[in-house]
């Protein structure tokens, strides 16, 4: 039903045990609590991504308050948006150690703290630290777990679930824009940020809803997936045995170490029981030792998994298709952000402000973007449709629109192109699905962390680069042309690398057959 790792051309081999014995699927996978996870992720997208889309309201207030240049002031918003995504790989380490729920709750507190401290800003540089860095890191600590948890709870309806949850970005853009505009008008921007910080504490509630699946539940999910994709499992068998023999993921040593530590900790129990008669301090010390030891084991196992994903023999960076995906991500996100930043100026240049005030072009993108995510998710879940092919077609449509937009000089023409941009950019909901197909659920957190980090770099430098091109040429046309061409280079990488990667395992197998 999906474009599996075999279809795309990379075998990571994390689903190493394939059993033919039928297993009763867990009711919480593709149903039950899974829809609460979708609700939680939906609210996270409203509170984080929706708020970032509405930062233009606060940007005007900061310009008036601090009397700084537009370029310097704009870096506050760019830092917040960029850091939210750039910290993805490091948030993957937190998830490996603490889990999605704990990471999201800590991130919610940090995000709220960034908003509240920003209410007392005395200059723009203060906002760089409080809003750009503090709130940005907090947003990243909530955003990545929200995406990863949806991938863990869904198998058959992954694309639809991701599509529904990420529509919160579009809804949030409308809700948060209206809310911040009202709060700034009634209470001033400082009180507005303080109130928004209090609202952001609801991210902790969203994190609390991210109930982790047990190891048994995750194993059942893997078995169900393997039973439904027997051909892929056969293709993965050779690479899985290789990974096991090399000890890539370090699971067996970790298990042995855990067993050894459990024996040591088990020997502590009789000592505790014997000490009840007299030495209370010894009991407390032994309990503290047991807690610290268990925490140390958890941290070491989490770090080992994170380290092996990035730097081990089965590092994600050795996956050529995944690296092509990262290169694509470096150019893709800026092509979506640039129209939001520069369309108002284009409208002024073409004397279309009157029509745009009635129905802004950016609003057209945001509205259609919501439907695009849901519709593309439904299409990708059809049995006869490949998620990978839908993803590529949406990318081709978006890059065509980016290259075509400067040619449109009427409101109707711009509106049509903007609608297509909004719909085709709905492929963002497919990114976690494609990433999971590339590397598997086990490595989804670390892999998707790298992808959104690349998106963050694109969001951080894309709009300033487009503005720099405008300063040189005094036209926005070249900004869109260059962004479109770079975007096309990323798409070409996606097309070439799977073909090369697919041929390599076949060559190895033929050589082994000859031997």
From TrEMBL:
Topological type in the membrane: Multi-pass membrane protein
Boundaries of every Major facilitator superfamily (MFS) profile domain copy: 37-502
Signal peptide region: none
Chief location: membrane
Pfam families reported for this sequence: MFS_1
Keyword Acyltransferase in record: no
Annotated transmembrane regions: 33-55, 75-95, 102-120, 126-148, 160-180, 192-210, 321-341, 361-379, 386-405, 411-434, 446-466, 478-496
A single cellular component GO annotation: membrane
Entry's Gene Ontology molecular function annotations: monocarboxylic acid transmembrane transporter activity
Localization of this protein: Membrane
Highest taxon above the source species: Eukaryota
Keyword Signal: no
Keywords: Membrane, Transmembrane, Transmembrane helix
PANTHER family attached to this UniProt entry: MONOCARBOXYLATE TRANSPORTER, MONOCARBOXYLATE TRANSPORTER 14
Name of protein: MOT14 protein
